[in-house]
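Format is chain and fold; as here:
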Amino acid sequence: MLSKIRINTLLDYYGGLLTERKQQICRYYYREDLSLQEIAELEGISRSAVHDTVKKCEAELCRYEEVLRCAEAREARNRIYRRMEEDSGAVKYLNNLLETELIGGNYE
């Protein structure tokens, strides 16, 4: 299972691509930290249905990241920004930033 922090990051980027129902269940589970049973009671579904939905959402979000790589590109930029803060020779880092903007998935 991916960490909740990682899934929350992916939700920031791709949550809007999930159905409303999946978004709500993910919001309960990842953002509000509710248990599967608590979500099941709120939604009027079984605990196993909540579990299955959470797993499907994780897989969808990972697939979106695999193709689009938005979170990966941001992480790369953040690494460069941190190095820029440590080093006054920022020109070479600006070129690295421009290169990271080209990172992206291939639509097939």
The chain has two domains: 4-68, 71-100. Residues 47-68 form the longest helix (22 residues). The chain has a mean pLDDT of 87. The CA atoms of residues 52 and 69 lie 25 Å apart.
